[in-house]
Amino acid sequence: MSAIDDVIRGDGQAARSLVRDPDAALDIIDRVTADGPAAWSLGPLLVEIGARAPVQGLAGLWRQTGCFEGRIIASRTLVRHGSPEAVSVLAEGLQDERRRLAITALGDTGLESARPLLEDELRRSCVALGVDPVAPDLTVIGAEPDPSEIELLPILLASLYKVGATGAPFSSLFSLLRFRSEDPYVAADSVREQAARALQVVVIDGMIGSLVEALTEESSSEVVDNGVEALAYLGSPRVIQQFLAWSRGDGALAAAASYRLRDLLGPLEGPDPGADELLENWTRLSVAARDDVCYRGGLPLLPDSLVQAVADHNRRVAVLRELAVITGRWLGYDELFGELGWYDYSASVRQWSEGVHDGFLEGGLYKYGRQRRMPKR
Fold first, then answer.
1. Is pLDDT at 68 greater than 90 in this prediction?
2. 138-146, Cβ contacts within 8 angstroms, sequence gap of 24 or more
3. Would you give the distance in Å from CA 114 to the centre of its chain?
4. pLDDT 10s digits, 311-370
5. Is 90 exceeded by the pLDDT of residue 104?
6. Is residue 222 part of a domain?
7. Is the confidence at residue 137, as pLDDT, over 80?
8. Does 331 reside within a domain?
9. What's the whole-number average pLDDT of the chain?
10. Helix/strand/coil for 282
11. Are 268 and 297 in contact (CB under 8 A)?
């Protein structure tokens, strides 16, 4: 097990060797997850090697880990495994304190076999909140909602969308974007942030106008950043025009819009363009821009452009986060753990691009591997 000590000291070669040694995966995970901080520092590595272990062994880790960090690693490893058997194991956590992790992980599998489980959880949340689970918009939430349920609702809706659900009340996210509460036990800012995060995945008519209206009045920088990200992932001409308008102001909203304008209108790699250059690029693009097209780098989005963009170290994390939403696949990056110094992201993204190239519509809007229609408003 000396290789583990080498990895802890930051030896990239040792990390790569362990990834290629699936037989040792569970022994390594059992040793490291006994210590929360150590487990967290090795989290991405443990997920990578653990995904090669049998589901039965991963089930034991999900059930028995005694630290929160180990539980997160177990859930992400089961997501990485990506099998119906892994879905069944994750479902065990829906009945106890692992529920939030389980709901998030079930959505992240992207598997249709997780859909009935998540639909049951939606009904359970609706009962707890005192709302009709078949209503198109869960706006009639009691004056004193259960804090744990109202904070979980946007996460649950996002997970349902990831697995291909179509009948869930996704427009409820618009109400959750504006959620406020005087109850000190309800984290209203967190509810709005999670609603904005959910709209990075969910595509529904009315989302552009709802996000613009909510963000214009929002004071939380976390909500603003995630809401701007949701709009940027659409990449439509209307979004670009709104970002240009916001960028002329000041504060968190102007900063976030200006940052994402670079991705929408600027070169895919290289130095950041100035505001005048971005405006010139938009002037050229707007002549022939189509409202139903997703743009990146001033051009309709294509897989090849994302391969090019991920090579820019300064923008890599932003591109990888977006790729996770577009593909629903493991490309070596997990937002919970961050960037890995030893992982070849360019090769991973290039491999994905070559596999989907012929089936990827130029300028298409994709979420979790499924093509979506650009929202009308």
1. no
2. 138/169, 138/172, 138/175, 139/172, 139/175, 141/175, 144/183, 145/181, 145/186
3. 17
4. 888 888 889 999 999 999 888 888 888 887 768 888 999 999 998 877 899 999 999 999
5. yes
6. yes
7. no
8. yes
9. 86
10. helix
11. yes
| Amino acid making up residue 111 | L
Contacts of 78 (CB under 8 A, 6+ apart): 55, 58, 62, 86, 89, 90, 105, 109
Cα separation, 190 vs 223, whole angstroms:
8
Q: Is residue 333 part of a domain?
A: yes
The answer to the question of residue 129 being in a domain is no
Q: Which pLDDT belongs to residue 253?
A: 97
Domain that holds residue 350: 206-377
Q: What percent of the chain clears pLDDT 70, i.e. is strictly above it? A: 85
63, two tokens: 């059930």
Reported as type and span, the H/E element at residue 370 is strand 370-372
Q: Which helix (H) or strand (E) holds 300?
A: strand 299-300
Structure tokens at 135: 């209503």
CA angle 316, 260, 299 (to 5 degrees): 85
Number of domains within the chain: 1
Q: Which residue has the tokens 């050229």?
A: 284
Mean pLDDT in residue range 79-95: 95
CA distance 363 to 366: 9
Q: Which residues of 290-325 are buried (b: 16+ CB within 10 A; e: fewer)?
A: eeebbbbbbebbbbebbbbbbeeeebbebbbebbbb
Beta bridge partners of 366: 371
Residue 206 in tokens: 């009315």
Mean pLDDT of 10-26: 62
Which amino acid does the sequence have at 116?
P
Strand partners of residue 71: none
DSSP letters for 174-195: HHHHT-----TTS-HHHHHHHH
Residue among 207, 251, 211, 249 at smallest CA distance from 227:
211
Half-sphere exposure for 113 (CA within 13 Å, toward CB): 12
Cα separation, 245 vs 10, in Å, equals: 45
CA 118 – CA 204 distance, rounded (Å): 19
Instruction: Tell me the β-bridge partners of 334.
Output: 338
Task: Please give the structure tokens belonging to residue 216.
Answer: 């214009």
